[in-house]
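User: Before I run my own analysis I want an independent prediction to cross-check against. Here's the chain; please return only the structure tokens and, at the end, one sentence I can use as a sanity check.
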Amino acid sequence: MPKTKKKKGGGKKAKGEGGKKKAAAAAVAVEEVTLEELQSAFKKECKALNVSSSAAEPISNAFASYLDDEEKGQMSQLCVSGQQIDGLAVQALFASLQKSKYLKLKTLCFWRAADIGTDGVKAACDIVSKLPSIQKLEMRDCGLSKLGCELLGQSMLINNRIFKSLVTLRLDFNRFGSDGLLAIAKGFTNNRCLRRLSFAFCGVCGDKKGQDAIHRILSNCLLIEELNLENNALGTQGCIGLITGFSNLRSSAFKEVNISSNQIGEALEEGDVQILHALAQSFKACTTLRKISFDGNFFADKIADLFLMMLSEAPHIQKFTVPHTLPSETVAAFAKTVNSHKPKTTKKGKNRRKKNET
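Assistant: Structure tokens:
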């Protein structure tokens, strides 16, 4: 009898299918890690690191809140607020996440956790740089030191190089100043994941380091959409970092900047008007920009006129908040100009809506 010819590539196909099945099985195995298993791993790590029950309590309570309430579903975010937590507890959390391969955690928040210390910051950075699931990190009012900022910068570099997972970073109410912001910004080189950054109430000044930090942020975060620098001390000189940053902006999605309450325009000196004019032109040139928060700063009449003229030529800007100290007629002029940028509803559109409603 004639031999049946085997189809070419049959063995390769079978081998390929086998590889796919193994990969799928591995993925299922990872997905099946439960919160109970993570909790058990956390307890083991706490014991190994001699973490006291009081220090571990904030994280243990977070686990319990999900386990006791089935409606919450899987634990995708872990937030510790206003409770005493030390660095060893965060180290135990990192080790348990890594060893159990729990990949459902996407958001990690520490609020008013002043006792977290450098060890805790390092552990949080390890979570960001070694786990692929983290999309959002908030460390607000945690007393971040210069070393902590450097560690964060390094973790940003690693996350961007390996995972590109971190989308949001909020570090408000940490008084690390220009030095700290520059240390963090050095970790944003060619960043292709961060979209939302917030450094409000961080004591950033308008000195050379503050300017360089802001320039690095805008020119290196390729997908940045929002930047919050509210309530710092940039002054008019600090706007130089914004101007040079906007001139090198590579993101095509940047839409919101908050520089409210930054002493901008206060006690104008020689050259300050030119700086603010350049800033206004930067806003005008960034056609993706939609919202600018400028309230809490200082506008002399000529500065108000300068930004009002810019807005009249920048229809892409749909919101521009101004200092409340301005005369009511000037505030009204700003509001009228910005409102004219909003798309108007045509009669056809109104008639269509009425028909749909009936």
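Sanity check: The chain has a mean pLDDT of 89.
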